[in-house]
Amino acid sequence: MSTSVNADMETRLARATRLLATVTDPEIPVVSLDEMGIVRGVFEEADGGIRVVITPTYSGCPAMTQIEDDIRAVLQPLGQKITVETQLSPAWTTDWMTSTAKEKLRAYGIAPPSRVCGSAAAQPQVMQFIRDAAVVDAVDCPHCGSAQTVEASHFGSTPCKALYKCLSCQEPFDYFKPF
Questions:
Q1: What is the reported pLDDT for 118?
Q2: How many domains does the chain have?
Q3: What b/e readout covers 138-157, taking b as 16+ CB neighbours within 10 angstroms?
């Protein structure tokens, strides 16, 4: 491949990557898909098209159709064929979220995951149906910072979040569950 073709490919991939960085999570509009770790890769196809690989935060995420539409819409100006591929393995983990995403979640009123889960690719994930009291996370209130919080419901506004209540400021808030 000639140098100019390689430079053109890099330019298209760089443009696609830059455009993708502007696509926000439809359920949490303050964080980008890239910051959430949903975008797993951007590739140039042999036919000149762009392929974007995404992994949902959980396999039943109702926002996936909207995410795919948003990706196609933002990349449309590139003029190439856009393919969005959903990859379920390895499963998404909150470890893929950037520290910027976690700070943006906190500022938005959602407590970010409070612990590291370990690499999903490096170790098998064990599903637990009974909560182990020793594993319960201390969740700080994103509004006042108090650690005096209780889980009100294991499911919050979406299944990937739990609903908590702060006993200090009395405000309810979502907590992005680590998994």
A1: 56
A2: 2
A3: ebbbbbeeeeebebeeeebe
